[in-house]
UniProtKB/TrEMBL annotation:
Pfam families the UniProt entry points to: Methyltransf_11 (PF08241)
Name of the protein in its database record: MET7A protein
Xref: Gene3D superfamilies: Vaccinia Virus protein VP39
Domain Methyltransferase type, residue spans: 73-170
SUPFAM superfamilies according to UniProt: S-adenosyl-L-methionine-dependent methyltransferases
Molecular function as annotated in GO: S-adenosylmethionine-dependent methyltransferase activity
Domain of life: Eukaryota
Classification via InterPro entries: Methyltransf_11, SAM-dependent_MTases_sf, Thiol_S-MT
Organism in which the protein naturally occurs: Catharus fuscescens
Transmembrane regions listed in the UniProt entry: none
Cross-referenced CDD domains: AdoMet_MTases (cd02440)
Amino acid sequence: SILLLRACLALLAWPIYLLSFLGLWEPFCRKIFFPFFLEKIGTVHEKKCKKHKEELFRNLPDFKGPSGELKLLEIGTGGGANFQFYPEGCRVTCSDINPHFQQSLSKNMKKNQHLHYEQFLVAAGEDLHQVPSGSVDAVVCTLVLCSVQNISGTLREVLRVLRPGGAFYFLEHVAAEHSSWRYFWQQVFYPTWKLVFAGCCLTRELWKNLEEAKFSELKIQHISVALPWMPIEPHIVGYGVK
């Protein structure tokens, strides 16, 4: 039944599959569709997650370095939706594999002038070689681990760039319970969703990857973020300390 429903969904999305076959969908998606979609759905998601993010980032100032400053690297910055939650004077380095979020990023930078913006890196989470080892106090990653090519590689890079005692903050959508209807529909949507939304995977059990990473302390909370007609309700939120 899953394969049949996948085929039906693929038929509905056949123009996108055709564009992908011709090599036209990925550049269009990266430059136009995905930034537009993320800005629209991000507005709804931010409203649903605001309280969770306020609680998550509340202890960010506790991880200031010996200099008294908080140096923060955000992986997958996108349009800068998290800037509002960072403390006064925080020095932010932005990174994203997709450089086509300029409009919303500039808008959020202007709205959040309590921060110091260091630089913007076009980089994948698995390869942050431009960031020196042990150079940041905190790394933030929200709705990004669902689409990285290598989760373990990304977490290794996170641990490399963090100073000892620094923290990694995350909020990610994850796979539903295997016995649930949500998981059934996640499996149905999986191939088409991944194609349409720039490699986003619906069924990753990211808490397992985080538990396997070498954090000295790890806090994970499973939450639900209800989004109408979207198969991404189950989320995890928390932080790990190096």
